[in-house]
Amino acid sequence: MVTNDKGAIALKHQVIEGLARLEWAGNLNEQTKEELAFQISPGPHPSFRCCVYKEREILKWRIRLACNEDAHPDKPSGNIIQVIDPACEECPLSSYTVTDNCRLCLGKACQNSCKFGAISMGEHRAHIDPNKCKECGMCANACPYGAIAHLVRPCRKPCPVNAISYDENGLCIIDEQKCIRCGQCIHSCPFGAIASKVYVLDIIRHIKAGREVIAMCAPATEGQFGKDITMAAVKAALKKVGFADMVEVGLGGDMTAAWESAEWSEARAEGKKMTTSCCPAFINLLQRHFPEQFAENMSETVSPMCAVSRYLKATHPGCITVFIGPCMAKKSESQELHIEGNADYVMTFGEMTTMLRSRDVELQPVVDSYQESSIWGKSFASSGGVANAVMECMKERGEDTTGIKLRACSGGKECVTALSLLKMGKLPEDFIEGMVCDGGCVGGPSKHKTEIEIKRARQSLLDEADGRKVLENLKNYPMDQFSMLRNGKMHPVDLG
Predict the structure, then answer these.
(1) What is the pLDDT of residues 235-287, one digit of tens each?
(2) pTM exceeding 0.70
(3) Domain 96-150 is of which CATH architecture?
(4) What is the CATH number of domain 201-481?
(5) Which residues contact 161 (CB under 8 A, 6 or more apart)?
């Protein structure tokens, strides 16, 4: 994972790998879980916190999440993203703090501006009482030296919907009704105090039971592991660990683009504005914060992940489908949105490589080639890629796309701005492509390398892809055997 503090991520993966090895061996139980916590934090000296007792308590919470259980044993949650309370206790509680720039000036503008009596004068500088401070910011605005700093806790800073607050003890609270499951807070927390449920053990159990488990790798996979690790290389590694097969979800991008293009054509004729449907965090944003626009303007087409899952379930009855990518919100889509035929489980890239390590399998270059989607389906990984693929399908049908105005939103703030304009009736564009992660899926919270490294390697791999057309490609698949709409109804689309 890409983070300034790899300790929290390494710890998460150490827990998952340990549990996975136990599950493969058939030795996973409450006793071995406890033993795993002691193996990671053996003592007598702590490795990553103040004492081994706190480390082991944190590990217990992490183990529960890694076992697809709620982090807090007594507080059930419907959110796949949860707070590990004992890991959250080290953050500062004060949002406003006085720095050494304070001159203890005669005017005392900070103290005079505070209506709550939170500011007093110390020996060397002013002091803010966190128990009285209401975080109004008046003192910071009043200080002529700019000596009062506003400290935004790192988990709260990237949240585009203000879903994070704190209790009386300063512990992080995630508002489940506001949270859009984008996962930006997870890798922003330097203490690793926010994490998600993990489904690796469930997947292992299905493999051990002899089920046909099929992996579905996101278009963003290409470039994540360097230019030598192709989709074929990922497929080979996953089959070694026990997956029956792997399909690239760029194929689902082709499917979604074809069906959304038909929707766009109808909406354009009616003078109606539309939003895309592939980013689950964007869909959660619509549902929870712009419900009217969700009902009126959102595409009815399923996401590429759901499209490929439905295709596989139609052609491989009884199979288990597992999406692999850089996205946390995909876990929400599979487990919380309850769209029929969607992926059964979701793994991040880090969870996938951890699962591979638990069977001593490594990603290695292969000579085989593998391509199932057009370059347009592969482009769903980047901001603007969805809209471009939809426009390509319209052109392949012979439609004139002149004059169509597109708004490609990259990042949560851009998405909120576009939807706010849509709600007010002031959106100048015809269609919104919403990607909550900066840069699109390649900038997802669980990306494996930096975005620059990914783009460089990704371009090298995309240059090797053939130039097949979207609609022509889909003629090779039984599109009449499953629905491409969220409501499950069949709606044929002209493939030319």
Answers:
(1) 999 999 999 999 999 999 999 999 999 999 999 999 999 998 789 999 999 99
(2) yes
(3) 2-Layer Sandwich (3.30)
(4) 3.40.950.10
(5) 178, 179, 180, 285, 288, 289, 412, 416
